[in-house]
Design a protein that fits this description.
5 helices, GTA_rcc01693, Phage tail assembly chaperone, Phage_TAC_6
Length: about 70
């Protein structure tokens, strides 16, 4: 039995810097957005935003190997 893989925490500091600094959103506009809306405003694709980390991917490959 393999250990559960913990998801990485949401990068709030990076998102706040991007939303408030780079995009120059007001705090009200920033905090009313969903993470998915913020990612779209930043030009990030949903696929890239939801991609697992290399560590998570490797753990999944070990847990579910191709046969």
């Amino acid at each position: 039995m393999s250990a559960a893989v913990e998801p990485e925490p949401f990068p709030w500091a990076t998102m706040m810097q991007a939303g408030l600094g780079h995009l120059r959103l007001s705090p009200e506009a920033f905090w009313s957005m969903t993470p998915r809306e913020l990612a779209a405003a930043m030009g990030l694709s949903a696929r890239a935003a939801n991609a697992p980390s290399r560590q998570t991917f490797d753990a999944l490959m070990r847990a579910f190997p191709d046969r």
